[in-house]
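From the shared-data thread, chain only:
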Amino acid sequence: MAAHGIPYVATACISYPLDFVNKLRKAKMFVGTKYLQILTPCPPGWRFSTEKTVELGRLAVQTGIWPLYEIVNGKFELSSPSAALVDKTRRKPIEEYVKQQGRFDRIAPEDVEELKRWIDESWLKYDSLRKANQRP
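Structure, as tokens:
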């Protein structure tokens, strides 16, 4: 969406309500099209107990599989819950996220390793975008 010149693009997660509400308020300030992609864990589809909804949303962010960010007029910025996760040692293991969901009951260890690689590669891109915005 950002590639189409939309002035405000962001990701959010219901498990981070302050971040979510702040992004909704910010989006209202822009004229024209805005885009928010929101992660909402789905108990029946993901096959987990409803009382774990907030926990799974947090794990999605904390493992780095769902980064929280904003792109404002083409400038990328990680949101505070995700900013520290550029350092991969600060991310929780993806296994914590996967093991709590029935939809991953049959995931193979090599698929988990591929998921880890994908997350690491994605975060290299986020870091590159973040650094590009810090240059004078």
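The helical segments are 17-28, 43-46, 53-62, 80-83, 94-98, 109-134.
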